[in-house]
Amino acid sequence: MRLIARKPDAVLGLATGSTPLSTYTALVERAHAEALDLSEVRGFALDEYLGLQPGHPESYRAVITREVVEPLGLTAANIHTPDASPETIETAGDAYERAIIAAGGVDLQILGIGTDGHVGFNEPGSSFASLTRVKTLTEQTRRDNARYFESLDAVPMHCITQGLGTIRRARHLVLLAFGAAKAAAIAAAVEGPVTASQPGSVIQLHPHTTVLVDEDAAADLVNADYYRHAWANRPAWQQL
Ligand code: F6R
What Rg, from alpha-carbon coordinates, does the chain have? Predict the structure, then answer.
C-alpha cells in the first residue's frame, strides 16, 4: 500500500493460484479503508496456460480479471498476461519481456511456490537466467492444479511463464506460502543450496526478498527461531 501511495502507477507482478488470494483480499480492504485509488496500478501476470480456448475460466487472463482486476478496481488495459495465442507463441516471450521493460520493470513481484519448488511455472531445471518462454509442466504440477479442471487430462501440458531471470529483475520479491504441502519447497528455497533443481532458491540471489509463511509452511526451516527473533526485533523503519 505504501508503494502505491508513493507511486500510483506502480508495477506489480501478479501470481495466480490459491496462495495470493488472501493477500489480494487484504489489498482490497486496505484500499477501501485508505480510500486509495488503484486505477493507475499496472501489472504483469507471471504465467499463462497454453491450449485453453480464449476466455476459458481457468486461463490466467480470466483468473486475474476475476480475482485481481475486478475486486481491486484495477484498469484491465493496465494488466498484462503473456499471450498464449498459437499464432504468435514463438515471439510472445520476447514481446512480454519488452513490455515489462517498457513499463520500467516490476516494482513488487508477488510469488507463490509449487510443491515441486517452481516459481512462476519455472519447473526444476529452469535456468536462473531464463526469460519469458514456453515450458512443459511437470506431472506433479499438473496433478496439483487438476483441482481447477474437470480432470487431470484437461490440465494443459504447456505454459508460457516469466523466467527466473525475469523474476530476478523485479525490485522486490514477496514469496508467499501457506500449508504443510509447501514446507519442503520453502525450506529448499530459503535454506537449501542455490540450484536450478529448486527454482525457488533463486530468491537467495535477490537483494530484496520478503518471505511470508504460516507455521505449517515454515515447519522445515532449520533457522526458524532466528527468523522469529529477527522479526520480533526488526528495526522500526523495516516494513514490507
Ligand atoms: C501461478 C504461479 C505458480 C503458483 C504455484 C502455487 O501464477 O506462478 O508458481 O504460485 O503453483 O500455486 P498455489 O498457490 O495454487 O498453491
Answer: 17
Instruction: Write the residue with the smallest CA distance to atom 14 of ligand 1.
Output: 19
Top-confidence residue, 32 or 90: 90
Strand order in the sheet with 158-161: 47-49, 158-161, 133-136
Determine the atom of ligand 1 nearest the C-alpha atom of 47. Answer: 7
- If one counts every other C-beta atom within 10 angstroms of the C-beta of residue 227, the result is 14
Q: What pTM value is reported for the model?
A: 0.96
Architecture of domain 2-232: 3-Layer(aba) Sandwich (3.40)
* Rounded Cα gap, residues 41 and 78, in angstroms: 7
Q: CA-to-CA distance for 88 and 225, rounded, in angstroms? A: 49
Q: How far is the CA of 104 from the centre of ligand 1 (A)?
A: 25
Task: Determine the distance separating the centroid of ligand 1 and the alpha carbon of 235, expressed in angstroms.
Answer: 31
CA of 18 to the centre of ligand 1 (A): 7
Q: Is the pLDDT of residue 46 over 60?
A: yes
Do residues 161 and 121 touch, judged by C-beta distance below 8 A?
A: yes
In angstroms, the CA 90 to CA 59 distance is 19
> What is the per-residue pLDDT across 73-128, written as a single tens digit (0 to 9) for each?
999 999 999 999 999 999 999 999 999 999 999 999 999 999 999 999 999 999 99
Q: Is 47 helix (H, G, I), strand (E, B) or coil?
A: strand
Residue 43's DSSP bridge partners are 12, 79
For residue 185, the SS3 value is helix
User: Where exactly are the structural domains of the chain?
Assistant: 2-232
Residue type, 131: L
